[in-house]
Amino acid sequence: MSTHINAANRGDIAESILLPGDPLRAKFIAENYLTNPKCFNEIRGMLGYTGTYKGVPVSVMGTGMGMPSMGIYSWELITEYGVQNLIRIGTAGSFHEDIKIKDIVIGMSASTDSNYIHAFDVPGTYAPCASWELLSKASDASKKLDIPFKAGNIVSCDVFYEFGDWWKKWAKMDVMAVEMEAAALYMNAAYNRVNAMAMMTISDHFVTGERSTAEERQKSFTDMMELALEIATK
Questions:
Q1: What is the chain's mean pLDDT, rounded?
Q2: Is residue 116 a contact partner of residue 67, using CB atoms and an 8 Å limit?
Q3: Which residues are marked as active site?
Q4: Which regions of the chain does DSSP assign to beta strands (E)?
Q5: Three-state secondary structure call for residue 129
Q6: How many CB atoms lie within 10 A of CB 95?
Q7: How many Cβ atoms sit within 10 Å of the Cβ of residue 138?
Q8: What does the pLDDT look like over 93-110, one tens digit per residue?
Q9: Based on the number of CB atoms within 10 Å of its own CB, is 44 exposed (0-12), middle (13-18) or buried (19 or more)?
Q10: 26 and 33 in contact (C-beta within 8 Å)?
Q11: How confident is residue 218, by pLDDT bands cut at 50, 70 and 90?
Q12: What is the DSSP string of 206-220?
């Protein structure tokens, strides 16, 4: 079996999967953390691998950028391949001075300016949320590995290059950071009754203007990777 975006057969993908936006980050994780990783997808350059971590099967696959791309990949992983636990591992831009570059944030909920929810025909405003099961595992893993994180509301935006001080309005509502995929992931997971959680390393800072390099985004956010792998295999 294969879908139009994925060459894998059912059974090639583990029930728990890490979802970086960058397919090269997926390759990095597979080659550096998984035992006996096997590539199950190369279609559209969106690399996917399955191996084991501490003896437990786990997969990792790129999703691309933005909610439409995340929406397609996560939907097919859930409905066509039976994935039960989806953990986004990506980057985000901080809105607050006390959330610094390289800090890890987890979106307990994901506000959004997207119209993605219209596909579900909900008669009102929907609040996309992370799975409590994965959040509780994240708390336990954080203590075990001594890798701290901050949890709260994030915002998933459709537009990357926005102008003016739009972000300050989100910051006033105590939104921690901005990214581009979590809300779609949470909606798909909720509709299909599976677990999802978005974990991001801060790569850009709206207050200080700091930015991580492309290489740092791809390879150096190892605390987030290790924390996500611990969660995925519990």
A1: 94
A2: yes
A3: 204
A4: 16-19, 35-41, 48-53, 56-61, 85-94, 104-112, 150-156, 177-179, 195-205
A5: strand
A6: 23
A7: 25
A8: 999 999 999 999 999 999
A9: middle
A10: no
A11: low
A12: TTT--B--HHHHHHT
